[in-house]
């Protein structure tokens, strides 16, 4: 029987002693960290003082894993022996989402659909625009409005044919017409005035027009102060007044100055020179500059007023219209020609006026400034005209009326629903 040595008494193999204070190779236990993590400077974290290797992915020095992109490395090293200290330091300063501290938009919310929601709402309700034309008889007021909107919107009556002569206006009359373009509906109301200044005695001839403008403010105000008012108050207020200046080529009449001076604080006045084809190009530019100078000397501020500009962009755009500028600039007052008849010019059908020496094309910028007036009135400033009417002119009238009555008083009875104004 052979001698068997039990396992517990077998001699253990000799293990070579590990040199003291020797750190393991960085290539084995400390793979390089990403550059710039934790503010360490070199991008490679140093081992802990104890020299004990830490497996990859554990919460060791540098702490640059999935917990922190902030200060974890710099504070995780050197605060106490071993991985526990490094782990504590990393969690104390690391963040889980953002190193900047601000919230980050992680997905699509849909805020940009607000514009589309507003568009759908306004498309359902539609738009209102009320324009008044004032000037001598025979200056083409009604024809110009028809040309602006390319529709028979002025002095519409039953049985009136297109080729018939437009009758002379004998009273202030509002004519409404619904225009639709591209799915957008607009209720356009044209306020035609009597032959302004046609009488021999023209004293206070602006009073009927001023009275009509204020009556529309009064109607809107009474609807506002009712206890059970309508969800959408009918807007009959005059948003724009086109004042037609006779193409004399000399200067403004005193009646023109008095009218614009008295009504410029209650309505948006846009002066236009009518029938500009009766003037040469040189006469037209000289007349425009003379009119602007007389308006400035008389203290008349026509639309757009400088104090109503909301920002520098509006000021820059409106200054191009207000300032005199060079003779080639299209500044106010616009020299226009209106016509609702079409002619054949170079193989195209165009709106124009036929003369002995040719056809004046209404929409040709080289012939007149009708295109500039239409762009200004409809394409760029229509909404602003409505806002200025409501926020400036109507609010001025409203404050005056309420001050006269000692403030806004409640309506005595809901049965009558009448305003005390």
UniProtKB/TrEMBL annotation:
Residue stretches making up the Septin-type G domain: 125-404
Record field: compositional bias (Pro residues): 13-23
Subcellular location: Cytoplasm
Cellular-component GO terms for this entry: cytoplasm
UniProt KW keywords: Cytoplasm, GTP-binding, Nucleotide-binding
Record-annotated membrane-spanning stretches: none
The protein, known as: Neuronal-specific septin-3
Native species: Mastacembelus armatus
Taxonomic lineage of the native organism: Eukaryota, Metazoa, Chordata, Craniata, Vertebrata
